[in-house]
C-alpha cells in the first residue's frame, strides 16, 4: 500500500486563508501581510493568501484586496486565493492574483450552507470563473469539501466525489484538492476513496487537505503520499476551520507534516526552524497557542534550555 512515495512533496500552505478565516479576533491587514511574507521566507512554494468571498460571510478576510496588493511576492512562489463566483474572480484579477481556487462540497447541505447554492448551481457558477480565469492566464485549482463526511449529512458516498472530480476536470481546473473539512477521515477510508478517485484522475492533478480535528490528519497524509499524491495542504501552526462546518477545527499543521516527510527522506524545501518562528509570532497575533505538536515541542525544548542556561 505504501509503495509509491514521491521524492518531493509540495506543501500548499493555507494558513493565511483557511487558518485565519476561523479566528474570532480581528487580525490587522499588516499582520496578515507580515505572516505571508514570513511564510514566503520559509521556502514554501505555494501559499493561499486570502478569499475573495462576500465579506459578510467571512468578515476576517474582508481585506483580501489590500492583502493581495501588500505582500512581497517572490519569484517561483505561487500565491493563490479562494473565489466563489464571477465577482470574486474580478476582484482577484484586479488585485493581481495569478492563481485562484474554486470550491464546492460533495454533500448538498454543506454546499448550501457554505455558498448558498446547490451543487449543480455552483458548477454552473464556475463557468463564469474557470474559463475567464484561464483566458486571463490565471490557473484554477478546485476544492471538493466534505469528501469523507459532512457535518449535516454524515456519511458521503465516494461516488459523489468521483463524479465531481470528473466534472471539475472537464471544466479545466489543473488540480483538485480533496477536503476532509471536519477531520473525520481515517487511513483505510482515505485509501479506499483515493483508489476510486485515482481511477479517474492523474495523481499529479490531486492534492489532499485534512483538518486534524480528531488527530488522524498525519496518518491520512501518510496513506495519501504512499499512494503517490505529491501535494499536501496544511496550515502553519495548525490554525484553521470552516465557519460553515460546525466542529471543524485546525488544519493539519505545516510544521508537523514537514517534520514527518523530511524525516522519511521526502523533500519539501521548507525550513522547519523558520516555520516555527513564524508560528510563534502568529500565536501573539491570534492570541492563543498554536495547535502544532512540532511547534509546541520545539518551543518547549527551547524554553527548557534557556531555563537551564539561566540557572547555570
Ligand atoms: P450570496 O449571498 O448568495 O451572494 O452568497 P449573492 O450573489 O446573492 O450576492 C449577495 C451580496 O454579496 C451582493 O452584495 C454581492 O455583490 C455580494 P449586495 O448587493 O448585497 O451589496 N457578493 C460578493 N462580495 C464580494 N465578493 C464576492 C461576492 N459575491 C457576492 N465574491 C457567496 C454567495 C458564494 C458569495 C457566499 O456564500 C460566500 O461568500 N461564501 C463564502 C463561504 C466561505 O468562504 N467559506 C469558507 C471557505 S470553504 C472551506 O473552508 C473549505 C476548504 O478549506 C476545503 C475543506 O476544508 O474541505 C476550501
Ligand atoms: Mg479547509
Can you describe this structure in just a few lines?
The protein has 312 residues and is α/β, with parallel strands linked by helices.
Q: In CATH terms, what is the architecture?
A: Alpha-Beta Barrel
| Highest-level CATH class | Alpha Beta
At the fold tier of CATH, the topology name is TIM Barrel
What is the count of structural domains?
A: 1
Output the structural class. Answer: alpha/beta
Q: Please state the CA-atom Rg, rounded to the nearest Å.
A: 19 Å
- From N to C, what is the helix and strand string? EHHEHEHEHHHEHEHEHEHHH
Shape: globular
Number of strands: 8
Please give the order of strands in the largest beta sheet. Answer: 3-2-1-8-7-6-5-4
Distance between the termini: 51 Å
Which sheet architecture does the biggest sheet show?
Answer: 8 strands, parallel
Q: Can you walk through the features of this model?
A:
This protein has one domain: TIM Barrel (Alpha-Beta Barrel), CATH 3.20.20. It has helices at residues 15-19, 29-40, 64-70, 86-94, 108-115, 119-126, 130-135, 158-170, 187-198, 217-226, 254-263, 272-286, 293-311, and strands at residues 10-13, 46-51, 78-82, 99-105, 139-145, 175-180, 206-210, 231-234. It is globular, with a radius of gyration of 19 Å. With 312 residues, the protein is α/β, with parallel strands linked by helices. It has an eight-stranded parallel sheet. Helix 2 packs antiparallel against helix 12 and helix 9 packs parallel to helix 10. The termini are far apart. The protein has 13 helices and eight strands. Helix content is 43%, strand content 14%. Strand 5, helix 8 (158-170) and strand 6 form a beta-alpha-beta unit. The mean pLDDT is 95. It binds 3-hydroxy-3-methylglutaryl-coenzyme A (HMG) and magnesium ion (MG). 3-hydroxy-3-methylglutaryl-coenzyme A (HMG) is lined by residues 18, 21, 51-54, 57-58, 82, 84-85, 87-88, 91, 103, 114-116, 143, 145, 179, 181, 209, 211, 242, 244.
Amino acid at each position: 500500500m505504501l509503495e509509491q512515495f514521491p521524492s518531493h512533496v509540495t506543501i500548499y500552505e493555507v494558513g493565511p486563508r483557511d487558518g485565519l478565516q476561523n479566528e474570532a479576533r480581528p487580525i490587522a491587514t499588516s499582520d496578515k501581510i507580515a505572516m505571508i511574507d514570513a511564510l514566503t521566507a520559509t521556502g514554501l512554494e505555494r501559499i493561499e493568501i486570502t478569499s475573495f468571498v462576500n465579506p459578510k460571510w467571512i468578515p476576517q478576510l474582508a481585506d483580501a484586496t489590500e492583502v493581495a496588493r501588500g505582500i512581497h511576492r517572490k519569484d517561483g512562489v505561487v500565491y493563490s486565493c479562494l473565489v466563489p463566483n464571477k465577482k470574486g474572480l474580478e476582484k482577484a484579477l484586479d488585485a493581481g492574483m495569478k492563481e485562484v481556487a474554486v470550491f464546492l462540497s460533495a454533500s448538498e447541505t454543506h454546499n448550501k450552507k457554505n455558498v448558498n447554492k446547490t451543487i449543480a448551481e455552483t458548477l454552473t457558477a464556475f463557468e463564469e470563473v474557470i474559463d475567464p480565469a484561464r483566458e486571463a492566464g490565471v490557473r484554477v485549482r478546485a476544492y471538493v469539501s466534505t469528501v469523507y463526511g459532512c457535518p449535516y449529512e454524515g456519511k458521503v458516498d465516494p461516488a459523489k466525489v468521483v463524479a465531481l472530480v470528473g466534472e471539475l476536470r472537464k471544466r479545466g481546473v489543473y488540480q483538485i484538492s480533496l477536503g476532509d473539512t471536519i477531520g473525520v477521515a481515517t487511513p483505510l477510508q482515505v485509501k479506499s476513496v483515493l483508489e476510486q478517485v485515482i481511477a479517474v484522475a492523474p495523481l499529479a492533478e490531486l492534492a489532499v487537505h485534512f483538518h486534524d480535528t480528531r488527530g488522524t490528519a498525519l496518518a491520512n497524509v501518510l496513506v495519501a503520499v504512499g499512494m503517490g499524491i505529491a501535494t499536501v495542504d496544511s496550515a502553519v501552526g495548525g490554525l484553521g476551520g470552516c465557519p460553515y462546518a460546525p466542529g471543524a477545527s485546525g488544519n493539519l499543521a505545516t510544521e508537523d507534516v514537514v517534520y514527518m516527510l523530511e524525516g522519511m527522506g521526502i523533500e519539501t524545501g521548507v525550513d522547519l526552524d523558520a516555520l516555527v518562528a513564524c508560528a510563534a509570532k502568529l500565536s501573539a497575533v491570534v492570541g492563543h497557542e498554536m495547535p502544532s505538536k512540532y511547534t509546541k515541542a520545539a518551543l518547549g525544548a527551547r524554553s527548557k534550555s534557556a531555563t537551564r542556561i539561566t540557572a547555570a
